[in-house]
Every structure is written in structure tokens, then in C-alpha cells.
């Protein structure tokens, strides 16, 4: 940071401070935007993983409830010995 200030002072003496400040502002803004983007992506990734873990823990709680009953979610599966009900086809 100290070197950066010395370079700005040197450029001010040479008369090109306006251009140097624009370049410095662009660099600082670019670093700021890149950092903010990385932080946002990291936050979203952590939040996604936390929700995934919460869903898994919720599934464990449902399957280990009273009487060791389970709740099946999704399409029912037929076994070959199940009669097929043709009333709704």
C-alpha cells in the first residue's frame, strides 16, 4: 500500500495524476467486484450444502420415528404378485 501511495505521488509530480487515479479506481473496483462475486458464490454454495444436510437429517428423523415406520415418497412400486387394478385405465 505504501508503494502504491509513492507511485501516486510520483505521478502527481509528473502531471498524470488524473489518468493514474482513473486506473487505480478501475483496479480497486475490479478487485471489489471480483471479491463480492466470490463471496456470493461461496455463500450460495454453503447454503446449498446446509439445506442438503438438513433434508438428509429430516429424512432420518422421519424414518426413525415411533415404531420404526417409514414414509415412502414417490410413485408406488408394484411387485409381480400385486393385482393390477384396471378400473382407471
Query: How many H/I helices?
Result: 2
**Total beta strand runs:** 0
Work out the helicity level.
55-70%
Mean pLDDT: 78
Largest sheet: none
- Strand content bin: under 5%
Distance between the termini: 76 Å
- The helix/strand series, from N terminus to C terminus, equals HH
Quaternary structure? single chain
Backbone CA Rg: 31 Å
Q: Which descriptor suits the 3D outline? A: rod-shaped
Low-confidence stretches: none
Tell me the structural class: mainly alpha
Q: How would you describe what is shown here?
A:
The protein is 67% helix and 0% strand. The protein is built from 2 helices and no strands. It has helices spanning 2-14, 17-63. It starts with a helix and ends in a 26-residue tail after the last helix. The mean pLDDT is 78.
Would you spell out the secondary-structure blueprint of this structure?
Elements: H1 2-14, H2 17-63
What labels would you give this structure?
89 residues; mainly alpha; 67% helix
